[in-house]
Specification:
- It is built from 13 helices and 21 strands.
- The chain is α/β, with parallel strands linked by helices.
- The protein has 3 domains: about 10-140, Rossmann fold, CATH 3.40.50.12160; about 140-385, tm_1862 like domain (pyruvate-formate lyase- activating enzyme); about 390-445, Beta Barrel (OB fold (Dihydrolipoamide Acetyltransferase, E2P)), CATH 2.40.50.140.
- The strands form 6 sheets. It has a 6-stranded parallel beta sheet with strand order 2-1-3-4-5-6, with helices on both faces. It has a 5-stranded mixed barrel with strand order 17-18-19-21-20. A 3-stranded parallel beta sheet has the order 7-10-13, sandwiched between helices.
- The longest helix has 26 residues, at about 360-385.
- The termini are far apart.
- S-adenosyl-L-homocysteine binds near residues 167, 170, 206 and 242.
Length: about 450
């Protein structure tokens, strides 16, 4: 590689899950601390960080088309932007990227991005640099202060996964389950609130596997962390995602009934409604066990909104097994959901299982599943009409005096009035669409 002038502007593009969004924000802070500015909207950046996702084939292949686009745009302008590939594709296919994409100067895995500044120095000197080490949690201590942020912030509390579902790359790309220490999380939460956050969403690939020791040295689970965060003045709302059924504790369920700042929303993926498929997926729970867990959450917090993830077309899935998934969906009545076609991932056990399902069968099942999920989401929104709730204002709408925020149940709510981003506004939900609701302002709760 040739030497290049030190970059003056950067852009971080994050794909995949919310943990990548969090990492993307932290990388942006790291680059800003080096004196590099965010590239203005619509302008090419001197340094582009592609913060990638490896979960499905489509997501993983996207990185190569993005690199091509950046190179082409640079050629047109007669310049060579520095390109860094970060995230889960970097971790899984670092060497392949270096070989396939000569324009890439840096490859940095999700546990190594605190070393980006050193790598950048090497790249500027014309040396390609790759770092996909997995030092346990070192990155969090090596990152700069949190910047001014919006009213809703992410906080990664747990990383990695030991569950090894047979279809999934996450245990390989993110490594083993690690919990960040209690004290450093409370500290970061304080800083987020000081920087403007009113809501914090605790993140982890298995967020409810988080464990630690509180200030008094007592062993605590995620509910203990939530209870401590709830005492932070200025913090109004707490959420967490993504949870695993096997790590649900009595304490977490109880917290939903007892901690007012903990929002009535639960993202608890089940993947399939068939016990045979769940076993083949290595999910360690049955469909019925999952439903019983939901009953307990609903006993603790009757209005809790349920969300989940599904995979259709897992190897060997029969029509009858898929029908069990539809039946489970009908029983649960999800408020919202994500659903995917199974994508065979290199190195995972399911990729070489017998009975890979034909693409057209997967298409058909996905369509039917999504029709059911859309129906339930619309029904959930329609049933919310008439409710009064607080909405956290997240941004301005297109029309003057129009605002967009989130209900406690994570629905997008539009309303009009004289407000500011970060306000909690009491509204009555008056009209429901499939993806959002209209609210009528009753009174501001907090300025
Ligand atoms: N840790 C979370 C999910 C992380 S990945 C959990 O276990 O619930 C997010 C979602 O992507 C998964 O819930 C699953 O529905 C989907 N997914 C993961 N691997 C996939 C694959 N190989 N093909 C299709 N979807 C997949
Ligand atoms: Fe992947 Fe399963 Fe771990 Fe979720 S629990 S990240 S689906 S291996
Ligand atoms: Fe994708 Fe990695 Fe998240 S594979 S879903 S970015 S953990």
């Amino acid at each position: 590689m040739q030497t290049s002038p030190p970059p003056r502007t950067y852009r971080v593009k994050s794909f995949g899950c919310q943990m990548n969004v969090y990492d993307g924000e932290r990388m942006a802070e790291l680059l800003a601390a080096q004196g590099i500015s965010p590239a203005p909207e619509g302008e090419d950046a001197d340094l582009v960080v592609l913060n990638t996702c490896h979960i499905r084939e489509k997501a993983a292949e996207k990185v190569y088309s993005d690199i091509g686009r950046i190179v082409k745009s640079g050629d047109k302008a007669g310049r060579k932007p520095l390109i860094a590939v970060a995230g889960c594709v970097a971790q899984a296919e670092g060497e392949e990227i270096m070989a396939r994409a000569p324009a890439v100067g840096m490859v940095v895995g999700p546990q190594a991005y605190h070393r980006l500044p050193e790598m950048l120095e090497r790249a500027v000197a014309g040396e390609r640099a790759s770092d996909t080490d997995m030092p346990a949690i070192a990155k969090f201590d090596a990152l700069p202060e949190r910047r001014k942020i919006g009213p809703s912030a992410f906080l990664t509390v747990q990383e990695g996964c030991d569950k090894f579902c047979t279809y999934c790359v996450v245990p390989y790309t993110r490594g083993a389950e690690i919990s960040r220490p209690f004290a450093s999380l409370i500290d970061e939460a304080h800083r987020l609130v000081d920087a403007g956050a009113r809501e914090i969403t605790l993140l982890g690939q298995n967020v409810n596997a988080w464990s630690g020791e509180d200030a008094a040295g007592r062993a605590v689970g995620l509910d203990g962390l939530i209870r401590e965060l709830a005492t932070l003045p200025g913090l109004q709302r707490i959420r967490y995602t993504t949870s695993h059924p096997a790590d649900v504790t009595d304490g977490l369920i109880a917290a939903h009934g007892e901690v007012a700042k903990l929002m009535p929303f639960l993202h608890l993926p089940v993947q399939s409604g068939s016990d045979r498929v769940l076993r083949a997926m290595n999910r360690s729970h049955t469909a019925d066990g999952y439903l019983r867990l939901l009953d307990r959450f609903r006993d603790a917090r009757p209005d809790i909104a349920i969300s989940g993830d599904f995979i259709v077309g897992f190897p060997g899935e029969t029509e009858a097994e898929f029908a069990d998934t539809l039946k489970l969906v009908e029983t649960v009545g999800y408020a919202q959901c994500f659903s995917f076609k199974y994508s065979p991932r290199p190195g995972t056990p399911a990729a070489t299982m017998d009975g890979q399902v034909a693409p057209e069968v997967m298409d058909d099942r996905l369509q039917r599943l999504q029709a059911a999920l859309n129906r339930d989401q619309s029904a959930f929104n329609a049933a919310s009409v008439g409710k009064r709730c607080a909405v956290l204002v997240e941004r301005k709408g297109k029309k003057p005096r129009q605002w967009l925020g989130k209900s406690p149940w994570l629905q997008s709510v539009w309303f009009e009035g004289d407000h500011a981003i970060g306000d909690l506004v009491e509204v009555e939900l008056v009209e429901a669409g499939p993806n959002s609701l209209a609210g009528r302002v009753l009174q501001p709760v907090h300025a």
